[in-house]
Write a structure and sequence with these properties.
The chain has 456 residues and is an alpha+beta fold. It has two domains: 99 residues, Orthogonal Bundle (Helix Hairpins); 323 residues, BirA Bifunctional Protein, domain 2. It contains 13 helices and 18 strands. Strands 1-11-12-13-16-10-9-4 form an eight-stranded mixed sheet. A hairpin with a 7-residue loop joins strand 14 and strand 15. The two termini are 40 Å apart. The relative contact order is 0.15.
C-alpha cells in the first residue's frame, strides 16, 4: 500500500496512477478523511495535554486547602476526559475507514513503464529462439488432442472427480510435470535461491499483505465456505501463488542489512477460480483452476531493486532457453501490469499447436509462463516488512520482487506442441531426460472401454 504521507504529498501522481491503471477510487474522499483524522489527532493531543495540566493541579489545590477550586478542577478534568473520548472514538472510526480505503489504491507505476489501457499497449522488449525454431510437422496437433491420443492427459476424469478446469496428468504426462519442477528448482538453486516448501492454506492477513485481498477475493478458493466477508473460524484460503506465503514469512518483522538480499524459491500447487475466455482458451491445460509452479521471491534493499528486477527476468528466462523453447518478453503497460506492481515483465512461450487470431507470424500463440515484478515497498507496507540499514538507524520498508520460474502446465503445452514428431511422439528436451528416464514420449494405451472426451 501507499503511505498516507505519500498520498497526501503526491496527490496528482496518485491520481494519475488510478487513471492509468483503470482503478476507480474516490481519492478526494480519502484526502478528506485524512485531513479530518489529522485534525482530530491534533485536537486529541491538545485535550490530553490540557487534562494532564488540570489533573496535576488537583493535588496541589487540595494540599493548599482550596477544596472549591480543587472540585472545579476535577469537574473540568472529567469534561476534558469526556470530550477526549468522543474525539478518540471518531478518530478511530476515521482511522479504520482510511486504512480500508488505502488498501484499494494501486501501486504507482515506475516512470519508465509504458502508459496504456490494455494488453494491446504492451511493448515487446525481447524475443529469443523464434527465428531459428526447429522444423515442425506439417500440421501441429494441439496439446489437448495429442495429450489424449497419447493418454497422458485426462480431462474427462479430472472433471468427474473435481469439476471443470481440473485434469489428470498420467504416465509420461505426470513424469513431465515432475521433471519440470525438479529441473526448475535445481536451476534456481544454482542461481543462489534457497528452497522453501510453504503451507498451502494461507490466512486473510497473508492475502492482504501481498495485495490479493481485498481486490481479488472473488478469484480465491476459500476453505470451508463461500467467498464472503463472514470468514469461518479457520480463515483459510488455498494459495493462488507461492508468492503469498513466502512473502508473508517475514510479515511484521525487521530484517537486518546483513540478511539481504534474500532469494527464496518455492514449488507449490496453486488454485485460482478464473477460467479465461471461451473456446480454445479453455481447452486443455492453458487455463486451469489448479496448476504447479515454481515461484522466486526476492527481498532487497530499495536502491538495488531495479537491478534485481533485470536479474530476476534473466533467471526466469534461463529455464526456457535451457529447454530450447522460443519465447518473448513483454514490458507491461500501466493498464495491464496489475494492481500491486510498479514495473512488470511478462514472459511468453511460443506454442505452435493453435492458430490464434493476431497470433505470431508462423501461427500458434504466445502463452504467458512468468510474470516478473517489482513491487517496490508496496507489499512491504501492507505486510509490515522492514529492514534496518545500520543498528543505530531507523527501520525502513524493504522492496519485494517475484517471478514465476515458471508455470508448469503451459510449458507442458509448449513442449508437447513444439517437440512433437510426425508419428505423434514427442521428443523430451535434453535437460529433462535425466529426470524423465527417457528421450521420447510415446504414450500408452488408454484404460477402460469408454473413449475419453475431447477435453472441452
Amino acid at each position: 500500500m501507499l503511505s498516507r504521507q505519500f498520498v497526501r504529498e503526491n496527490t496528482e501522481e496518485v491520481r494519475r496512477a488510478l487513471e492509468t491503471k483503470g482503478v476507480d477510487v474516490d481519492l478526494d474522499r480519502i484526502l478528506e478523511v485524512d485531513e479530518e483524522w489529522r485534525q482530530l489527532k491534533a485536537k486529541g493531543d491538545d485535550l490530553r495535554h490540557q487534562r494532564n495540566e488540570v489533573s496535576s493541579q488537583i493535588g496541589e489545590l487540595k494540599q493548599a486547602g482550596e477544596e472549591e477550586k480543587a472540585q472545579a478542577a476535577i469537574e473540568e478534568s472529567q469534561e476534558l476526559k469526556a470530550e477526549l473520548e468522543t474525539v478518540e472514538e471518531r478518530a478511530e472510526e476515521l482511522e479504520a475507514e482510511l486504512e480500508a480505503a488505502l488498501l484499494e489504491i494501486p501501486n504507482v507505476p515506475h516512470p519508465d513503464a509504458p502508459v496504456g489501457e490494455d494488453e494491446s499497449d504492451n511493448v515487446e522488449a525481447d524475443r529469443w529462439g523464434f527465428e531459428d525454431r526447429r522444423e515442425l510437422p506439417d500440421e501441429v496437433v494441439p496439446h489437448y488432442d495429442l495429450g489424449e491420443a497419447l493418454d497422458i492427459l485426462d480431462f474427462e476424469r479430472g472433471a468427474k472427480v473435481t469439476g471443470g478446469g481440473f485434469y489428470f496428468a498420467k504416465g509420461e504426462g505426470a513424469q513431465l510435470e515432475h521433471a519440470l519442477v525438479q529441473f526448475m528448482l535445481e536451476t534456481h538453486r544454482e542461481q543462489g535461491y534457497t528452497d522453501v516448501f510453504p503451507p498451502i492454506p494461507v490466512n486473510s492477513a497473508s492475502m492482504r499483505g501481498t495485495g490479493q485481498f481485498p481486490k481479488f477475493v472473488e478469484d480465491a478458493y476459500r476453505i470451508g465456505g463461500d467467498n464472503d466477508e463472514d470468514y469461518d473460524d479457520d480463515d483459510l484460503w488455498l494459495l493462488p501463488t507461492a508468492e503469498v506465503p513466502v512473502t508473508n514469512m517475514y510479515r511484521d518483522e525487521i530484517l537486518l542489512d546483513d540478511d539481504l538480499p534474500i532469494k527464496h524459491q518455492a514449488y507449490s500447487p496453486n488454485f485460482r477460480r478464473e477460467a479465461g475466455e471461451h473456446g480454445t482458451e479453455t481447452r486443455g491445460i492453458v487455463r486451469v483452476h489448479q496448476f504447479n509452479k515454481v515461484e522466486m521471491v526476492n527481498f532487497v534493499r530499495p536502491e538495488e531493486s531495479y537491478d534485481r528486477l533485470e536479474g530476476l527476468l534473466d533467471e526466469a528466462t534461463s529455464v526456457l532457453e535451457a529447454l530450447g523453447l522460443p519465447y518473448r518478453v513483454l514490458e507491461m503497460c500501466t493498464g495491464d501490469m496489475g494492481f500491486t506492481q510498479a514495473k512488470k515483465y511478462d514472459v511468453e512461450v511460443w506454442a505452435p499447436g493453435d492458430d490464434m487470431e493476431d497470433g505470431p507470424e508462423a501461427g500458434g500463440r504466445w502463452l504467458e509462463v512468468s510474470s516478473v515484478s517489482n513491487f517496490e515497498d508496496f507489499q512491504a507496507r501492507r505486510a509490515g516488512i522492514q529492514y534496518r540499514p545500520e543498528q543505530h538507524e531507523s527501520a525502513e520498508y524493504i522492496h519485494t520482487l517475484n517471478g514465476s520460474g515458471v508455470a508448469v502446465p503451459r510449458v507442458v503445452v509448449a513442449i508437447l506442441e513444439y517437440y512433437q514428431n510426425d508419428d505423434g511422439t514427442v521428443d523430451v528436451p535434453e535437460p529433462l531426460q535425466p529426470y524423465m528416464g527417457c528421450e521420447v514420449i510415446e504414450g500408452h494405451d488408454a484404460v477402460g472401454e469408454t473413449a475419453v472426451g475431447d477435453g472441452a
